[in-house]
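A student in our group prepared the protein record below, which I am reviewing. Thanks in advance; the entry in question is below.
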Amino acid sequence: MRTYTSSYGGYVAQVYALVDYSLIPNSCNDTDNGQNYTIQGTISGSYYDTNYTNTDYCVSNTTLLEYYCFQNRGWNMTTSCAGNETTICDTGACI
């Protein structure tokens, strides 16, 4: 519930507004097109009227935090870079 307060001519008025956030569509876009561990990507969109932007990054030199979209929502997961050409995470991607 949001509250709006205004003062005019010595009078105070309060208006309460209920907002049904379920009617606001969620959105998500991913610059590396999903769970792509070898390219640093960025997700951006809105979740119930709140905008967000998150970029893939290295948690350690061997672990990647990957952001991706699923069902018009932003998600993330950590993954090991083991099994790639090297096991190194650098600049938000497994190389």
Observations:
- The chain has a mean pLDDT of 86.
- DSSP finds no helices and ten strands in the chain.
- The CA atoms of residues 45 and 92 lie 20 Å apart.
